[in-house]
Inverse folding.
């Protein structure tokens, strides 16, 4: 076994070094905390000074937006729904609250904050057929809600899902139970990546990270400056794409998407299902006309468990569901920029969707609320 | 466990504090348990692979030492077969089947051999090579086997370098486990500085550039007709790879240093190298020296003439490529690098003439030109390294030289600009370390006053907090 080579003088030096180390470490920690909190204050102030861009639009949705019609969705929601066209047919103001890269979590945060202020008449939730599958990326992207964590209590437990992932937790709790993707508890520990971490440190680390002043604005300084100084216009939240996809790029896109479809291990995400369910319940309780729509897509999606879950949920809550994702009317390259529709495609789709809504799904909507000043 | 995770933020101070609090005789056990936990953060069951190779190599070491004549070779062979066997099953089996199926199809047959559905254990090639160096050194008579099983297990599993090196030699590491390390303020601070720089390289530069690189390399055909995009992604990947692996190595060496251990240097500012040979000598030093000591030199090195030397170099590069991964892209990556290295040997006179010319204009000019040229030799080989398949890599090269337009994929603006900001800071720092630092192992050009030092380091931590990517992403080299 190891041979000791210690001397009492080296031990004394060690104790002295330990004292110096602890003192300096504490001092450094103190300076870091001051920098962090001051930096956080500056970034927070600048964040809410933004006038345009996605951050400013989120703030607007959370604080001031009062349109009667609201579109919720990811980048597909943002690009495929022309709010002005929808407003023309429906007869009331429509705002497109879609946000690039987001999913039902962000949409639930919008719904909660909107319902705190007013009751919209119509909410269209755009989903893609694979929306409800578990994807790490969707949890990473909850960082867009981090700046609202302190001042918007309704956002907190949604943001904290970032530290829960496929585990389980009680909202508000610091602790997270490990994920159990298999019925076999042996497999859940011994054969699963990160299982050890979840069992040894079963805490929601995001809750601790949010003690930092800077962390909620991590990676955002440039976006914030751009939001303050760059003017980017949207048409009531709608961001049209101009241009038409080439045949070669379309084929490549379809090939890539087909490859993605074959990824193994897809599973429906219980947190996403819960978020969608809460969103629909909240809206229905307030008497909002809700509709779930799958907007047209160039590259086909898989129609599997996620799709079926959406269908079941809509049936259970008795809300209209319409899948346009493979509607042949729109399967023409001239309507697409990439897998998102271009302005021409979005306008055509929005006008037909609007007429479907007033004709089939909510025929009383226009009579009740239409012709309001826009 | 990854170094850039919350778990490590808890693990490292806890393990280090307990290490210094424990009496010396228990420290090895503490480090061994900590290393097991560290490894099991990936897929716990894979610890059994390590247990298997540790047991084999521990006894092989003793038997080699005790045996005489051909039996020594037999025990060495047993150890190598066991280690390479583990690699063959977990890392190369599917690659082997893939190639058999391909050849059979080409011959009109359909053997349809089945693939193994397994996730590659992390760092397999690293600890396997470290374990092999132990039995080889005993066989060569350079090292006496350790009798303490726990110490040998710790040699293979020492957590700072367990999953991505540096690949240590028994002569350098094992005796350190027997030495008592008192807490030494200077060593601790120097180790922490290395860890800070490593973290900066990983989360501010590598992971930031990774987003852009992945978009282009994973979907090259989506950027058809944008040659500039392909160049930028290739430049970024070269820097991402260095910052990812170099950053990991710095954290590994730094965290070991905090506890009083000295691990070998793994990267020495490779992109400041002024020739492709110099880049090679500064890159992943623990692996290149492993191949030099155990493959290149036994084959005769450069001692048997230029052409034999070049052949030996080719063998080394082929094996180094294969070591990296079970894909021909890795082999081709290293073979491209081999072509550049061999060219330097063959065209020595012409290169000397070129050097004389460019350095003649101005030494700084010569340095810049040669550094840029050497960097680009790296880039050409890395295209193979990062591409998913040989056909993707060839497509990538064709796009780099398509001169189709000046269109350029900006990606997320923050990725581009934060990445560039990090690169500029890093290269300024490396230039200072290389040419201006008074101490050889200085990490940062820190101010003299104590108060300013606190502000300086707090500012670096604040920059990391503000611009770092904190998604605890894996290090690229873990897969090897």
């Amino acid at each position: 076994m190891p041979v000791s080579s210690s001397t009492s003088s080296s031990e004394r030096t060690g104790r002295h070094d330990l004292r110096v180390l602890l003192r300096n470490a504490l001092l450094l920690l103190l300076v870091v905390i001051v920098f962090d909190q001051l930096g956080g204050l500056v970034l927070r102030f600048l964040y809410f000074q933004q006038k345009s861009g996605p951050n400013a639009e989120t703030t607007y949705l959370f604080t001031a937006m009062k349109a009667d019609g609201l579109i919720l969705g990811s980048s597909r929601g943002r690009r495929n729904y022309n709010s002005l066209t929808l407003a023309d047919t429906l007869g009331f103001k429509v705002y497109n609250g879609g946000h690039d890269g987001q999913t039902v979590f962000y949409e639930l945060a919008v719904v909660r904050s909107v319902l705190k202020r007013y009751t919209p008449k119509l909410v269209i939730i755009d989903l893609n057929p694979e929306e409800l599958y578990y994807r790490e990326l969707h949890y990473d992207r909850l960082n867009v809600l981090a700046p609202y964590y302190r001042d918007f209590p309704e956002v907190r437990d949604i943001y904290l899902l970032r530290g829960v992932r496929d585990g389980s937790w009680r909202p508000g709790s610091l602790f997270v139970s490990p994920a159990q993707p298999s019925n076999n508890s042996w497999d859940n520990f011994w054969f699963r990546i990160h299982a050890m971490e979840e069992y040894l440190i079963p805490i929601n680390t995001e809750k601790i990270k949010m003690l930092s002043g800077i962390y909620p604005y991590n990676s955002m300084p440039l976006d914030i400056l751009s939001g303050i100084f760059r003017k980017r216009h949207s048409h009531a939240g709608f961001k049209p794409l101009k241009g038409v996809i080439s045949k070669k790029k379309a084929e490549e896109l379809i090939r890539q998407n087909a490859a993605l479809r074959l990824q193994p291990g897809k599973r429906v995400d219980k947190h996403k299902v819960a978020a969608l369910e809460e969103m629909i319940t909240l809206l229905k309780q307030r008497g909002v006309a809700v509709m779930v729509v799958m907007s047209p897509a160039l590259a086909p999606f898989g129609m599997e468990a996620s799709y079926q879950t959406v269908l079941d949920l809509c049936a259970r809550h008795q809300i209209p569901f319409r899948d346009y994702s493979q509607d042949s009317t729109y399967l023409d390259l001239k309507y697409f920029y990439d897998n998102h529709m271009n302005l021409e495609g979005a306008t055509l789709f929005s006008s037909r969707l609007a007429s479907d809504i007033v004709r089939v799904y909510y025929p009383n909507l226009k009579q009740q609320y239409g012709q309001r000043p826009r | 466990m990854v170094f850039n995770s919350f778990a490590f933020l808890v693990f490292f101070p806890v393990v280090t504090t307990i290490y210094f609090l424990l009496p010396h005789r228990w420290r090895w056990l503490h480090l061994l348990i900590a290393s097991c936990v560290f490894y099991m953060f990936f897929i716990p069951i894979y610890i059994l692979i390590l247990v298997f190779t540790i047991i084999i190599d521990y006894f092989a070491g003793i038997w080699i030492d005790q045996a005489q004549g051909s039996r020594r070779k037999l025990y060495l062979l047993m150890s190598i077969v066991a280690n390479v066997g583990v690699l063959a099953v977990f890392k190369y089996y599917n690659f082997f089947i893939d190639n058999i199926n391909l050849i059979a199809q080409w011959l009109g047959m359909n053997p349809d051999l089945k693939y193994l559905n397994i996730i590659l254990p992390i760092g397999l090639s690293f600890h396997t090579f470290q374990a092999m160096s132990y039995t080889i050194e005993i066989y060569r008579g350079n090292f006496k086997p350790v009798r303490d099983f726990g110490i040998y297990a710790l040699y293979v599993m020492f957590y700072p370098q367990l999953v991505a090196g540096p690949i240590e030699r028994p002569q350098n590491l094992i005796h350190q486990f027997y030495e008592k390390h008192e807490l030494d303020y200077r060593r601790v601070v120097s180790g922490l500085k290395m860890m800070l720089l490593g973290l900066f390289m990983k989360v501010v530069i590598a992971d930031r550039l990774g987003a852009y690189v992945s978009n282009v390399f994973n979907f090259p055909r989506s950027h058809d007709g944008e040659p500039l995009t392909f160049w930028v992604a290739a430049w970024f990947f070269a820097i991402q790879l260095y910052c990812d692996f170099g950053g990991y190595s710095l954290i590994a060496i730094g965290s070991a240093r905090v506890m009083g251990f000295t691990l070998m240097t793994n990267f020495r500012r490779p992109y400041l190298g002024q020739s492709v040979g110099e880049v090679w000598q500064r890159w992943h030093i623990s692996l290149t020296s492993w191949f030099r000591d155990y493959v290149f030199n036994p084959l005769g090195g450069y001692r048997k003439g230029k052409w034999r030397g070049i052949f030996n170099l080719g063998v080394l590069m082929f094996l180094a490529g294969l070591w990296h991964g079970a894909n021909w892209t890795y082999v081709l990556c290293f073979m491209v690098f081999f072509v550049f290295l061999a060219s330097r040997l063959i065209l020595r006179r012409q290169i000397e003439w070129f050097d004389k010319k460019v350095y003649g204009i101005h030494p700084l000019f010569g340095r810049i030109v040669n550094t840029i040229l050497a960097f680009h030799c790296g880039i050409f080989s890395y295209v193979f390294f990062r591409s998913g398949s040989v056909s993707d890599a060839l497509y990538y090269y064709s796009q780099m030289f398509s001169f189709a337009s000046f269109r350029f994929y900006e990606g997320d603006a923050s990725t581009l600009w934060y990445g560039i900001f990090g690169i500029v800071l890093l290269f300024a720092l490396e230039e200072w370390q290389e040419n201006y630092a008074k101490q050889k192992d200085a990490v940062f050009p820190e101010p003299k006053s104590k108060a300013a030092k606190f502000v300086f380091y707090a500012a670096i931590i604040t920059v990391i907090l503000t611009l770092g990517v904190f998604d605890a992403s894996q290090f690229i080299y873990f897969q090897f």
Observations:
- The first helix of chain B runs from residue 6 to 21.
- Chain B has two domains: 6-180, 186-467.
- Chain B has a mean pLDDT of 90.
- Residues 6-180 of chain B form one domain.
